[in-house]
Amino acid sequence: MHFSIPETESRAADGANAAYVAYNIHVNGVLHCQVRYSQLLGLHEQLRKEYGANVVPAFPPKKIFTLTPVEVEQRREQLEKYMQAVRQDPLLGGSEIFNSFLRKAQQETQQIPTEEVQLEVLLSNGQTVKVNLLTSDQTEDVLEAVASKLDLPEDLIGYFHLFLVREAKDGAFSFIRKLQEFELPYVSVTSLRNPEYKILLRKSYWDSAYDDDVMEQRVGLNLLYAQPQDSSPVPFQTVADIERGWILANKEQHRQLKSLQEKVSKKEFIRLAQTLKYYGYLKFDPCVTDFPEKGCHVIVGAGNSELNFQVKLPNDQVKEGSFKVTRMRCWRVTSSVPVHNGTSGPAGSKSEVKLELAFEYLMSKERLQWVTITSPQAIMLSICLQSMVDELMVKKSGGSIRKMFRRRANGTLQRSDSQQAVKSPPLLSKLSSVSLRAISHSSSATDIGAHDFHGNYAFEGIGDEDL
Prior knowledge:
Blueprint (H helix, E strand, L loop, with lengths): L2 E10 L6 E9 L2 E7 H15 L17 H20 L1 H4 L2 H15 L5 E7 L5 E7 L4 H12 L9 E8 L5 E6 L6 H6 L6 E7 L7 H5 L2 H8 L10 H8 L7 H12 L3 H9 L7 E2 L3 E3 L6 E8 L2 E7 L5 E7 L3 E9 L17 E11 L2 E8 L3 H19 L7 E4 L5 E4 L1 H6 L30 E2 L1 H4 L7
Parallel strand pairs: 4-8
Antiparallel strand pairs: 1-2, 2-3, 4-5, 6-7, 6-8, 9-11, 10-11, 10-16, 11-12, 12-13, 14-15, 14-19, 15-16, 17-18
Helix pairs in contact: 8-11, 10-11
């Protein structure tokens, strides 16, 4: 997860003529909150008190005199590096001190008071579930509320997650991001002030073998089956995916699916669906790639430990290919502002930030090649890659993705990552940090420093027999 402070704002202090500098903190390229230096210093002091000075990174020192514009920029860069360092530390970045600070700052920035509200959460079949909660409830609280409303057993909650999506006119969803522990879902979705943005409940794993765990329970089975309230011959999501060509099924498979649904044979239906090509994949909006040549239009799908490309070549020929996660040596997410005559855009205009995901792929035993995807969903693509790597590593170590929840003192549930921490490499959690240049005047991926790369544990474990 990337924290950046791309700009500052001078704001008048309340009840005084003096002005102060407010720092805009962006998470994955989206404004999360505005904070003052004194607030970040308070966070730093809390972390030092809890974890010790030898664990917490150095904080930019106070200045006695008013900062010059150059010093303001230097401090901004130092604070950005500090926030990145804290987030990338498994102990500090996952701490309740850090996450609660960001949640409180988000709520204060958006000026949304704490009060009881009703939130609508989408299910994969297009239906909605309404939950009563507080505007200050964090992601895990909302997930628990949805699970309780659906009667989903506690030991299955970890198989599902909440996602921020954008709903198109045809009912299709564009995945924006996975909601994180440092944000308030109600605030995140309402602050966008656009009814097209929704919160969606979806399974959080990639390997369809884990469907067996979920199908052990009635509610889990129903969520995977996603029976619609109409006469559609197969569940809503499957129908939509098949119609768009996201899941491929021939006439005989269509007939079998319809027969199984008429018999309400849910498990058998799911097992047949698992055999269909692209079952369980996330499909992304059409975008652009430089593979096999620059400027090619592509539809990317993520699933089955790979990124699938359906590329339209300049001669209108369509080719398909897949890039296995285990053959990606590293990847990075970058952003840039289009350059117009040496500037970041025409005067008074708001330049469109371009996001790119680039990964270094082992094309053959001796040849690595960079492949770039230019897409507004580049960050979500990176999150997908990371979660697939995490899942592969847990499976390789003989672990399980079954995430357990423990009761907090107030009676609510909290995810426990102790199982994952034991079965994953000790630095694996640091790979969740996505490097993003929020304001960069270069569109060249070669300008990125070495610290911006994501190493891949799954790649490091490859042997010659896998090539």
